[in-house]
Amino acid sequence: MIHKIIKEEIRVPGTLEDTYMETFLLSVTDKFTVQERPLILVCPGGGYNHTSDREAEIVAMQFNAMGYHTAVLRYSCKPAVFPTALLELAKAVAFFREHAGEYCIDPDRIAVLGFSAAGHLAASLGVFWNTEWFAQIRRENGVNLTAEQIRPDGLILAYPVITSGKFAHRGSFDDLLGEARSADQAWLAKMSLEKQDIKDMPPVFMWHTSYDNAVPLQNSLFLATALINAKKPLEYHIFPGDVHGMSLADWRTRSEERVEDTPATAWIGLAHTWLENWKKH
User: Is 242 domain-assigned?
Assistant: First the structure.
């Protein structure tokens, strides 16, 4: 295992001091026939207010057990505002693509896994990576990376925040945009991802609970509808229940009212199957 804490390589203007990326990269011996492995970059949720421990290392370990490299990005949250976290995520993806040969990473199979508000973060990179709008933001912030360097090859979205409209998780947008911009309808519309041009969106695996008590199901449903209309690759699962923030959805990540052993425990096995079929998308 190559375990590193990476800080400077992902810093951008506005990055907070406690921001870092932790790697869990498999040691690939020359005895293995297959050298290059996919990498899953895990972004814990937390409403753009914090990053949840329940959706971090323990999730990365499950994907390591499947044979994938992983890393956890502890991106900047409140008081940092857009575009800080998105630029950090872009730099994190570019870092692994640049070091793919060194770490035996398949540079064409770098997936971003985002929970809740970090589902919005991951999906934002999927929506905006190839846009001139985000290229201009990168230039303004001195992030000299091309679209191909920051391109996510796949997205795994768990109960994601997507819409800033009627079914929004309002706190996420307040903390993402800050007090002034969160009242600006133009900014809210831009951050409502189901309303954007998704022509360059990578393949998506997404799941939600049917009566999520914090981020309504309509968030993922709106994005799923947009992806279907655009004929983009999508696997979408809705599990019965009303709990938000379930992480692995079993005893390993049980916390407070978040119950264990619900049907949603199946999501990580389904994601594994989706990843194994990745090249067929």
Answer: yes
